[in-house]
């Protein structure tokens, strides 16, 4: 790797001088990232970064990035901490943390030249068309069908579910079955699908917390050119394995180096305890300290997994550690906040902005234990891939997937 044109110190100085005239100061209350107006505003901010050579700092130069070491990305994050930087909710993670890093490993140079610069300019946001209603956590059991046409293009038919913010995304990475006469982990292929493609219907799902972060999709004769295929035909499970590593934390934006500073002591919990007059309670202080330590430990683990991923040493089993830890910490912290808040945590004034934050966080706290693969699937991954424990016996593991489906349908018959 050639030495960067500017040192870290020079880069920091340039960023420090650029920020006040180009980005707004971060407001005290974060806006809703799941509105079309917010997405449009932050696309413009992303373009501003790109035009100033501050987007894609660690991404390859040939696709519009800067090709810099991870230390530059961390330096920018530190300098810009008090400013509004591009944030698209979960689409930030799926686009910049999962989809594009996976494409960089598996897509053709032509495909990358076409899409990565558009992502860096804020013109494309990506979601994942992955899980299916009939597959559950069995990601290899998908039934969305990709049929080859005479002109070499593909027709996609099927249904997807739990796609985060698909109604606000521009493109989706879609996994489909291209061969039914091989075992289920074979015969899979990935495609890039425009979210406004004819035949694709995207429907937001109303959640218990009142939002609609997840969506379901129906593909009815969606035509995709072969040039929008990601990876080799029938070899999609290798792409899936890469995506799972990134999705489970290794590609999280900002997870570039192990954080040395644990930050302030759980400021949200401290503020909640102060509002309820319990800041002097020893048990409350222990709970706050425990939540703070757990959050710092999770951040350390995620950063370590990200480092291993960049070195090519992390698979989906190792990434499952971070996913499990994050899910457990999120649920525990939400429960702690609910305990601290008492009645004030579940009863709030609807005219007071943010008053429902504690209750909302609790309602949403189980999401990390399901999204991206259930905790049970993560434990299986750790057991089999990391600890080397034997797989659970599966009599149909080597059967063609079409035969597996036939037997399942036969079993369901009364």
Account of the 3D structure:
The chain is an alpha+beta fold and 414 residues long. It has 3 domains: 8-125, Butyryl-Coa Dehydrogenase, subunit A, domain 1 (Orthogonal Bundle), CATH 1.10.540; 127-240, Butyryl-CoA Dehydrogenase, subunit A, domain 2, CATH 2.40.110.10; 258-386, Butyryl-CoA Dehydrogenase, subunit A, domain 3, CATH 1.20.140. 45% of the residues lie in helices and 12% in strands. The strands form 2 sheets. A 4-stranded mixed β-sheet has the order 1-4-5-8, with helices on one face. A hairpin with a 5-residue loop joins strand 2 and strand 3 (154-164). Helix 4 runs antiparallel to helix 6 (236-250) and helix 9 runs antiparallel to helix 12. The longest helix has 29 residues, at 282-310. It is globular. The mean pLDDT is 86.
What's the count of strands?
8
Low-confidence stretches: none
Q: Could you give me the name of the CATH homologous superfamily of the largest domain?
A: Butyryl-CoA Dehydrogenase, subunit A, domain 3
Briefly note the CATH topology name of the largest domain. Butyryl-CoA Dehydrogenase, subunit A, domain 3
Biggest sheet statistics = 4 strands, mixed
CATH structural architecture of the largest domain: Up-down Bundle
Name the helix and strand elements from N-terminus to C-terminus, one letter apiece. HHHHHEEEEEEEEHHHHHHHH
> What would you call the structural class?
alpha+beta
Strand coverage percent: 5-15%
Q: What is the CATH top level name of the largest domain?
A: Mainly Alpha
Distance between the termini: 64 Å
Strand order of the largest sheet: 1-4-5-8
């Amino acid at each position: 790797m050639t030495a960067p044109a500017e040192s870290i110190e020079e880069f920091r100085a340039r960023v420090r001088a650029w920020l006040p005239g180009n980005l707004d100061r971060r407001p005290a209350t974060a806006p809703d990232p799941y509105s079309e107006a917010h997405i449009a505003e932050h696309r413009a901010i992303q373009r501003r970064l790109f035009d100033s050579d501050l987007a894609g700092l660690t991404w390859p130069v040939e696709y519009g990035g800067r090709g810099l070491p991870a230390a530059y990305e961390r330096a920018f994050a530190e300098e810009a901490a008090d400013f509004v930087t591009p944030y698209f909710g979960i689409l930030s993670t799926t686009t910049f943390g999962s989809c594009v890093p996976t494409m960089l490993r598996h897509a053709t140079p032509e495909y990358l030249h076409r899409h990565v610069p558009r992502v860096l300019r804020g013109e494309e946001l990506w979601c994942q068309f992955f899980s299916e209603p009939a597959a559950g956590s069995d990601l290899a059991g998908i039934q969305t069908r990709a049929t080859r046409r005479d002109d070499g293009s593909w027709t996609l038919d099927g249904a997807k579910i739990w796609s985060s913010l698909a109604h606000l995304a521009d493109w989706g990475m879609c996994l489909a079955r291209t061969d039914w006469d091989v075992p289920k982990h074979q015969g899979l292929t990935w495609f890039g699908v425009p979210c406004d493609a004819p035949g694709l219907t995207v429907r937001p799902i109303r959640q218990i917390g009142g939002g609609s972060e997840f969506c379901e999709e129906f593909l009815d004769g969606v035509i995709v050119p072969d040039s929008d295929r990601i990876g080799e035909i029938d070899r999609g499970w290798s792409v899936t394995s890469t995506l799972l590593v990134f999705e489970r934390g290794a590609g999280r934006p900002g997870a570039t180096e192990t954080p040395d500073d644990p930050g302030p002591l759980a400021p949200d919990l401290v503020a909640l305890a102060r509002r309820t007059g319990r800041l002097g309670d020893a048990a409350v202080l222990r709970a706050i300290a425990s939540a703070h330590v757990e959050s710092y430990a999770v951040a350390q683990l995620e950063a370590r997994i990200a480092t291993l991923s960049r070195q090519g040493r992390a698979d989906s089993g190792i990434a499952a550690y971070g996913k499990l830890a994050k899910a457990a910490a999120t649920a525990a912290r939400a429960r702690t906040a609910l305990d601290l808040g008492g009645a004030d945590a579940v009863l709030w004034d609807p005219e007071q902005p943010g008053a429902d934050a504690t209750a909302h966080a609790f309602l949403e706290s189980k999401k990390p234990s399901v999204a991206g693969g259930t905790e049970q699937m993560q434990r299986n991954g750790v057991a089999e891939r990391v600890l080397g424990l034997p797989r659970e016996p599966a009599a149909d593991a080597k059967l063609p997937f079409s035969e597996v489906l036939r037997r399942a349908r036969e079993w369901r018959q009364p």
